[in-house]
Hints:
Elements: E1 7-10, H1 12-19, H2 26-33, E2 38-41, H3 43-56, H4 59-71, E3 75-77, H5 94-103, E4 107-109, E5 128-129, H6 131-142
Helix pairs in contact: 1-2, 3-4
Amino acid sequence: MSIAVPRIVLDTNILVASIGRRSPYRWIFDAVIDSKLVLCVSNEILTEYREIVGRKTNRIVAENLTNFLTSSPSVERFDIYYNFGLIDVDESDNKFVDCAISANADHLVSNDRHFNLLKKIDFPLVSVLTLLEFEVSYRSILSR
C-alpha cells in the first residue's frame, strides 16, 4: 500500500526559509527535491518566488530556483481560473489561497496571520498550517 505524497502550497517566506543549505527548515525543500512532497504553484506564485529570492539573495540563485521549480516532477503548476478573494487585509495573499484550492492541496503552509481567517471559513476549505505545525506533523515522516 502506497502513501499519498502530501500536496502543499508554501507562502514565499516559508520557501525562502527552506532553501538555504544550512537552514533548519531545509528538510522541506529536500522533501520536494526527493519527491516526498508535491509543491503546488501558479505563475503568479512563481513570479513572487523569483522576485523575493532575487531580492534576498541574487539573480543567479533566483534563476536557478525558478528553473528547478519549472522542471521538477515534484512541482505542479496550476492555472488559476477563479479568484476567491477570501483575504481582504492583504489581497496579494490570495494567490496562495487560490492555488491551494485549485490544486486541492493538503495544506497551505504560512506563518502569516492573514491566513488565520481561513480557519473560520467552511467553504472553500483550505487547511492552513504554520511552519511549526507543519514540522510537527510531517518532519519525521519526510526526513526518512
